[in-house]
Amino acid sequence: MWLPGPKDSRGVDYLATTGDYLRIYKVGADGTVEEPPVLLNNNSKSEYCAPLTSFDWNETDPNMLGTSSIDTTCTIWDRERGVATTQLIAHDKEVYDIAFAQGKNVFASVGADGSARLFDLRNLEHSTITYESEGFQPLLRVAWNKLDPNFIATILADSNKTIILDIRMPSTPVSTLSAHTAAVNSVAWAPHSPCHICTGSDDKSALIWDLKTMPKPITDPILAYNAEDPINQLEWSAAQPEWVAIAFNRKMQVLRV
Q: What would the pLDDT profile of 97-139 be if each residue is shown by its tens digit?
């Protein structure tokens, strides 16, 4: 994932990846990648760390990143200093995803314990469990609506449902989107509209939903696209919001909304 916002005054950009470690690559103005990358380890007691499942840049303060790990923790990093500023046990089981809200203090995480939790860096003594799935079915992804931060979306493991949550009303979904016929793999809010969201699924379809009638039930999407194979990932372009990119098999397609 690229650093959000413009490049620095020297034209340098940054690209971060997670897997065994958090790696941050510096990309020069001429496109050359500086090697080796900055390698950040969330285990201060060992040269090895538990695999990282996901991460998110903070758009308000791009110097801040958050990572999630199978060791039940979330870690907040200072990019410029190359150090962890906060590490907390976020869930009872593996943490699968993390997403920042607007601003620099609040983030959400989801995990194998079936819960979606909210954290405030100004007060880490407490967290809010905003949702627990039926039967504690694992939650794989979380996406925060940056234009209306009262709403987050999450998807369940091996489920055709996308859960829309209103953080002002914990525990009960404000809407459940279930038009897919196979497991949902990816979800992205529209960067230019607070009431539109896109989902991609193993049923090979990408669906765009209009949520402005919530809390009334929403049964059908407003747009649909069928790919050649199951859709693994999608992104809605913030710079050019008329485009959505989807990835499947060994291909990527860019779709005009």
A: 999 999 999 999 999 999 999 999 999 888 899 999 999 999 9
Between CA 160 and CA 7 the distance in angstroms is 38
Neighbours of 202 (CB within 10 A): 18
Place of tokens 């449902």: 161
Q: Is 139 helix (H, G, I), strand (E, B) or coil?
A: strand
Task: Give Dmax over CA atoms of the chain in angstroms.
Answer: 52
- Residue at token pair 């009638």: 213
Residue 184's contacts (CB-CB under 8 Å, 6 or more residues apart) are 155, 156, 159, 160, 161, 162, 199, 200, 201, 202
For 135, the 3-state DSSP assignment is helix
Count of residues making up the chain: 257
Q: How far apart are CA 145 and CA 142, in angstroms?
A: 10
CA distances from 146 to 99, 220, 234 (A): 10, 23, 17
Whether the bond between 241 and the residue before it is cis, its omega within 30 degrees of 0, is no
What region, left, alpha or beta, does residue 238 occupy, with left being phi > 0 and alpha being psi -120 to 50 degrees? alpha
CA-to-CA distance for 82 and 45, rounded, in angstroms? 16
pTM, 2 dp: 0.92
Q: Which amino acid would we find at residue 139?
A: L
